Amino acid sequence: MTLNEKLKKIITSVSIACVIAAGLIAILYLVNCSADGKIIADSLSELLVKVLLTLLVIFLSGLFLLNAVDAISNKNLFGLISAGLIGVSAVLFLISIWSGLQGAYLNATVIIAAITILFNTLVGNTLSMGKNSLIIQIISYVALAVFEGMIVYAIVGGNSDFFMDNIFTILIIGIIWAVFAIILLFRKKALNSKGATATASIGNNKVVLTKQEYQALLDRIKELEEQLK
Question: At residue 34, does pLDDT exceed 70?
């Protein structure tokens, strides 16, 4: 199992565990709220909400890390920056959840998170697809940037009226982004099935190999290592 596969397996396992735990906590919280006599105290109920939000932050961070894991395993600079931004955003949100910090701190956290999502999407798609479906990629990025910009403006500026007045526009832009993101996902899978590429650095030069060529090279190295034993 390659480092790439190990990272994906670990991240996926943690994300699944967070989803299961969050689901159980959400059910307990809803049952408690709907019960005539509360099952748990208000203080414990508040704690459950914080734990639930924490699990959601970890889950979402895992999803974005999966998008950059190829770059991380190859020690790509942009991939490492993306992973760093994801980590910073997660920590900032967790601090806000458990400390109750609001105002300027939360606004800054929301802005950093929005930048992280856009950067992570750009890095993940660019490294895995290159210039394939470039027009679709550009439309997707523009739609995501506008979608995030409108939401951030409503949150950071405290413009709830802006959000409600433009809710239909925001939803349409969000749907457009989602549609093109799904198209890119299928295009990405199609490229992987045809033979993904791997980049190896030799000195100051880079060599691009198909997935089959890369695997054949690894098999040959393994054979040579066995012969030298």
Answer: no
